[in-house]
Amino acid sequence: MAKTQETQGISDDKQNTLKTALEKDFPDNNIEVYESNDVAASSGMNFFFKCLAACALAMVITIIYIGFRFKKIGGISAGVFSVVALAHDMCMVYGCFVICRFDINANFMAVLLTILGYSINATIIIYDRIRENENLLGNKMELEDLVNLSITQTMGRSIHTTVTTVLAMATVCIVCIICGVTSILSFAFPLIIGMISGVYSSNCIAPTLWVHWKKHQAKKSHSGSKTGSTKKKASRR
Q1: Which tens digit of pLDDT belongs to each residue from 105-114?
Q2: Cβ–Cβ contacts within 10 Å for residue 196, how many?
Q3: What Å distances lie between residue 214 and 5, 124, 228, CA to CA?
């Protein structure tokens, strides 16, 4: 095992150069890099910003996809509010890492992407059910009742998916605590927090914000049309 102390850390190129030099000096030994850790503050910050950039790209793609997929129910607005729910989940995961003092490493990125996948899938299923109910019922129900019906119809699936995943990760956490394996614990426990946050944001945050936005748009268009008709009457007089 080799340890180095530098204020700026060792890049991957320097590590490969060092390995090549060791293999040249000790040709009879089988030299392999099993694990490499860089604890420099700048390296952690760079990795954190790379994680944020990857998540931001995923959010942009999500907005575009939902915008085309759900044009009939206001796709862009639905995509934007689903991303707001995703941002809520990301903050919860990041807070879990900070409070538990887990390292911001590959596990952090893995948890974020996993939660993004679970959460956006649950949100898309709700939007899809809203679209189906809107086609079936039309204007027979108010928008709030229509969304509540859609959430109720998909609630069982969301709870079952979350409970099974959380139970599996809870089992992994118990085994990790007993065996003292902290590397897997830093993935399993934040994933539990993210799953609970995801089922909440998918069912409560994204649909609720979308309903408020649609009502605001309807109210704005109604007031605009009313103002236009008033102006027409005044011009006729």
Answers
A1: 888 888 988 8
A2: 14
A3: 58, 17, 21
